[in-house]
Design a protein that fits this description.
The protein has eleven helices and 17 strands. It is of the alpha/beta class. The radius of gyration is 23 Å and the shape is elongated.
């Protein structure tokens, strides 16, 4: 079999040789050296400021690697903030996003030193203004946080995806709602930017540029209407990964060229992107043993030790993670293949990880490795159903496989 493009063979021997009873239900591993090199290529530009969307992968070692690469951090919960600050990141390098910010949460973030916010409702805007005034020693000593308003636009022809596309979502407000405010009504805030992000896992440079271009006029008009000097435009993320191996890969150099045009059209000092999967997906793998093989109505099936309890994304997106067999001495283009349905151990038909061509002699006890699992793997999983264990996480660095967190049995979380 030909080595797939998503798999780095430098890690293969370490995964084949790794044997641990604790990891018989599957484990994650992240190549930190490869991640470091890749992040450096993303930073070789001066057009945009890059944030890391912590929801993609909040593992400590991953955050540390992004920190050293010069990324700042987009956090959407108190838990994410705690994890980022625990890695020594200055709270001044944190952007607070998310649709469900309460006044107590905003107060806690401000108290911890976070001073950049994306607000998604009139309530959040008012609460944040009140919080800053309430925590200030005096009005004269107010430190105004930088605030971006999240805008939700609609187009005549939209497309659906996990972020909603053209569908109505809880992310932000329409232009018509935001245009009823004026920046002068919020003296404790530096209302300086707009945030727009509605499409996920985009794989076409042309489509992304078209969407970005359509956003500029209504956002610029909104800023004028509310008395805002538009200094920052945050385009969120949405840069995609070709999970289905269809040959659709974004060109990062073209992304930068396109964003330079957008930045000039919008006339902003700063253009921001919040990268999640595009920053970390390729550095991560998930390894899981085969526990059963059977023929069912003419279809070969492999039942794995874990499924959507560790990798939920395929069930909610119909985009499975790519997979290959881990086998010592495997020679390219020699082994015959056939189609298999891959299933996990949960008592639900949802627990399927895809339909793949794999070696036809694959046997019970052999291990599969899934790719692009550096994003939306461990923390997007659903391990509690049927009381399965939490997967272990490892990092691979300097040719060494090191455990960051051991697998945890159900007894660790059941009351």
């Amino acid at each position: 079999m030909t080595t797939p493009t998503w798999f780095d063979p430098r890690i293969e021997n370490a995964l084949i040789e790794h044997v641990s009873p604790e990891d018989e239900q599957g484990y994650f591993v992240y190549q930190l050296d490869a991640l470091k090199a890749y992040l450096a290529t993303l930073q070789q530009q001066d057009v945009i400021k890059l944030w890391f969307a912590v929801k993609a992968n909040p593992l400590s070692k991953v955050i540390q690697t992004l920190d050293h690469a010069g990324f700042d951090f987009d956090v959407a919960s108190a838990g994410e903030l705690t994890q980022v600050l625990a890695q020594g990141v200055d709270p001044g390098r944190v952007l607070n996003t998310g649709p469900a910010k309460s006044k107590p949460q905003l107060a806690a973030f401000v108290k911890k030193g976070v001073n950049t916010f994306v607000v998604e409702s009139l309530n959040q805007l008012n609460w944040l203004n009140e919080v800053v005034l309430e925590q200030a020693i005096s009005v004269d000593k107010v430190v105004k946080p930088k605030v971006l308003l999240r805008v939700q636009l609609q187009w005549p022809e939209g497309e659906k995806n996990p972020l909603g596309g053209n569908s109505l979502t809880p992310f932000g407000l329409s232009v018509s709602e935001w245009q009823n405010i004026h920046v002068d009504s919020y003296p404790a805030l530096n209302l300086c930017g707009l945030h727009i992000f509605q499409w996920g896992n985009m794989l076409s440079n042309e489509k992304m540029f078209s969407l970005w271009s359509q956003m500029v006029p209504p956002l610029s008009d909104l800023a004028d209407r509310i008395g805002m000097t538009l200094e920052v435009l945050d385009l969120g993320g949405g840069l995609g990964i070709d999970y289905l191996a269809q040959g659709q890969m974004l060109s990062w150099s073209q992304v930068i060229e396109d964003l330079a045009v957008i930045k000039e059209k919008a006339g902003v000092k700063e253009l921001w992107l919040e990268l999640g999967r595009f920053a970390v997906a390729e550095c991560g793998y998930y390894v899981v043993p085969v526990v059963d093989r059977k023929m069912n109505y003419g279809q070969e099936q492999l039942v794995l030790a874990a499924g959507i309890n560790h990798l939920l994304r395929p069930a909610i997106t119909d985009q499975p993670f790519p997979v290959k067999l881990l086998r010592a001495g495997q020679t390219d283009d020699v082994t015959s293949t056939q189609a298999f349905d891959l299933h996990g151990p949960l008592c639900t038909s949802m627990d399927t990880l895809g339909h793949f061509d794999l070696p036809n002699d694959i046997a019970v006890g052999e291990k599969l490795v899934f790719g692009y699992c550096g994003a939306y793997g461990f923390t997007e999983s659903m391990p509690f159903f049927l009381c399965h264990e939490l997967a272990a996480e490892y990092v691979y660095q300097d040719d060494q496989l090191t455990q960051v967190r051991a697998a945890k049995p159900a007894s660790s979380y059941l009351a």
